[in-house]
Structure to design on (337 residues):
């Protein structure tokens, strides 16, 4: 099966096409440090045979957390805990990426002021953010840079910039959440500026041989919001800075999304074809047959299984064994088959 074929990108060799997408666990203590829970959670998926594990949304600054229990990477003290988990995952044959993020107006952290392109709140359940000054924007760009440096020190094989789901980068990209009149708002070029500046500084410190992933929402599911064609345009603008697009959708506004198995795959296929970029498809992919269809029909290069891997951390070796490939079963577990 294509699902179990190796994938190579720059210096990264992944043993199969299965990705664990970033999923917040809300288990860090208030200082954002990774602990035993994260160690067990991620190393279990590595033992299970996942090719690439993308660690959950990890905040580049304290006010950039989604909740007070998010992982952080805004201080050197965060490196050690993450490195321990990265080393364990590697020992079990998985490759690792860190998703770095700033939540912008979607932060629910009570102890910090929340920041966004404009003082427009997400919904009535959220606080009104403070509109970012240009000086604050420049500082945030540096926060992403330092986060990338620390992620490299922790030993991650790849870095994912979170540009999706209505968090800060996406808030800048979409005209529905960015009504600024300075160089960061208005035209598409201006709305891309923050992302571009982040990618530029990240690129300067992130090793060339390690891939940079960008997670995107290919549709805002709203009139006048970003759609797949606009996302193609956006990716064209920053194509030189990224190696893989991780194609998701939604999250900008509390919009209704009709989700069904593979519902985001057409976005992945379009971006892959029109931007000539490798993609990860994600979204209710639970069955090997669907994953195989996506990969074999070249609709994505890798497939991510989120909630399925929460339910079943051993999905990869169970699926491989069902397809007569017992190479993924850890030797200690072979008696069970
Ligand atoms: C518990 C949970 C936490 C999530 N946290 C993140 C996150 O930190 N970053 C992110 O980009 N997406 C996050 N997501 C979205 C997933 O990465 C994935 O795109 C989504 O679950 C759809 O894939 P699935 O149907 O295979 O679960 C989260 C999803 C879940 C269920």
């Amino acid at each position: 099966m294509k699902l179990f074929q190796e994938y190579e990108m720059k210096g990264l060799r992944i043993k199969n096409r299965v990705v664990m997408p970033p999923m917040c666990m809300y288990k860090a203590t208030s200082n954002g440090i990774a602990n035993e829970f994260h160690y067990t959670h991620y190393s279990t998926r590595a033992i299970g045979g996942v090719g690439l594990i993308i660690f959950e949304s990890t905040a580049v600054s304290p006010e950039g957390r989604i909740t007070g229990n998010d992982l952080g990477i805004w201080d050197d003290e965060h490196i050690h805990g993450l490195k321990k988990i990265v080393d364990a995952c590697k020992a079990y044959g998985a490759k690792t990426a860190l998703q770095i993020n700033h939540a912008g107006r979607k932060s629910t952290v009570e102890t910090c002021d929340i920041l966004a392109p404009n003082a427009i709140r997400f919904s009535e359940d959220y606080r009104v953010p403070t509109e970012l000054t240009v000086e604050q924007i420049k500082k945030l760009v540096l926060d992403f840079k330092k986060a990338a440096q620390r992620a490299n020190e922790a030993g991650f094989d790849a870095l994912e910039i979170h540009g999706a789901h209505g968090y800060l980068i996406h808030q800048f990209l979409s005209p529905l959440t960015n009504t600024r009149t300075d160089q960061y708002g208005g035209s598409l070029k201006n709305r891309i500026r923050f992302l571009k500046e982040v990618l530029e500084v990240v690129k300067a410190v992130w090793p060339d041989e390690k891939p940079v992933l960008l997670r995107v929402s290919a549709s805002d599911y709203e009139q006048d919001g970003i759609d797949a064609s606009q996302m193609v345009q956006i990716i064209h603008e920053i194509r030189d800075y990224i190696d893989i697009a991780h194609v998701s959708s939604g999250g900008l506004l509390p919009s209704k999304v009709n989700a069904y198995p593979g519902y985001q795959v057409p976005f992945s296929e379009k971006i892959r074809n029109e931007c000539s970029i490798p993609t990860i498809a994600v979204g209710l992919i639970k069955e090997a047959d669907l994953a195989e269809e996506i990969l074999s029909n070249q609709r994505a290069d890798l497939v991510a299984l989120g909630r399925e891997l929460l339910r079943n951390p051993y999905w990869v070796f169970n699926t491989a064994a069902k397809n007569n490939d017992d190479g993924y079963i850890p030797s200690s577990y072979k008696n069970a088959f």
Observations:
- Residues 134-153 form the longest helix (20 residues).
- The mean pLDDT is 97.
